[in-house]
Amino acid sequence: MDTTSALFYLFSAVLLVSAFRVITARSTVHAALFLVLAFFNAACVWMLLKAEFLAITLVLVYVGAVMVLFLFVVMMLDVDTDALREGFWTHFPLAAFVGVLISLEMALVLKTSFNLPQAKPFDPAVVQLGNTRALGVEVYTQYLYPLQVAAVLLLVAIIAAIALTLRRRKDSRYQNPSEQVRAKKADRVRLVKMPPTIEVPAVAKTAEGGQA
After folding, report:
1. Is residue 118 one of the residues assigned to a domain?
2. For residue 66, what is the DSSP state?
3. What confidence score (pLDDT) does residue 84 get?
């Protein structure tokens, strides 16, 4: 076994373990961090396949932007995970059956994908373009329609995340900008006039005279 194969098995094993921990972690924050680890190992697998642009894009976009957004959303939503796990074992048999059924369907679909015809030789013009430019040409020509569909789905997901975070909560404190703009000096500051000197009370004078 050469070094590349050993690194592939290592990154793949860590990727599978971290992906499994994403769905089994008790804390949502820990699940998001395990997902970050899964993305890093997937990027390492891309590097082994000599797809450097995809690896860097996976780290910059998903780990640097999407996962940060996930963490902020998870922290702001404050999801009660204990309440969500109350009926876990009740629905586990049905969920396991559906999961196994989906896995078998995916295996049947992917099995036909491995029966690929003989690979065609690379076009010299495409090779001269470079990895990044050739990928851009393929994405924005042959796969333009799937790219637009993915963009619409991401837009809907962003709008849904914003709608979830904008709900009114009783325990949250917030400021009303319109009231702050309409505020006047009289509403915030109260001037009190006080005499420059304060007379000594008569009781205090009598006590001082008695002590003298």
Report:
1. no
2. I
3. 64
